[in-house]
């Protein structure tokens, strides 16, 4: 069967991750991926999804003696294809001078959220501290720094994801909102055996609330006469944000543009207020769900109220 857009997205993610196209001298190339025994389910799942598009042989178990590891051996599952013109073509796209490269024209077409998810499940890591996500790492150290810079630019242009490159030549997300947004993009495609790479509902709810007296920073152009009352009134819009998240309508282009704009210097005024218990719980929950702090969320609520007023006038 000819590869379709979905299968090419999965292949794209696999080749960004643990997949490769091996070629022995004088022979045609073969598609291959290897996973450790702990990721056996993921290996079998990838095989089941790709076998209708690539002539793959089923996963087979390998145990290799290795004195460098504590157990004295490693265990893994290997999948390799037979030869096929599709694989020969993929090899010509992804390899130059026998080395894997980043084919940006191909990535521009097929680096979909599905491809991101497969790449992340292969070569991604979510670092959490006390259930709080701190960074997402994608292992890209086999590519050149120039390629990784271009890859970061592609992810920025395509998804408004702002990766940076660390000293090990890996690309990383540190920003809380960006981490949650990335997980939102990939979560529909995560296999259950990879839930260790996401945030569970327990991570969201098992958190201590902040003290009631909270400092909210708002742009100076927002004029308040009774800060506690007015901010709490605007925070009553929080259930609408939860509804948007539930309906997958939260991460809009407008929101992504707004969040990026908050990183530029804007004169802000602090308001130390007492947040109502209901609003406090909603702010805490929303922070764990999106990574947005109380000040940004409050500003969103003010913007939502203004938007509804404009719609009412029209």
Automatic annotation (TrEMBL):
List, for all copies, the residue spans of the domain called Homing endonuclease LAGLIDADG.
9-170
GO function terms (MF aspect) = endonuclease activity
Q: What is this protein called?
A: Endonuclease
Note the superkingdom of the native organism: Bacteria
Q: List the InterPro entries.
A: Homing_endonucl (IPR027434), LAGLIDADG_dom (IPR004860)
Keywords from the UniProt entry: Endonuclease, Hydrolase, Nuclease
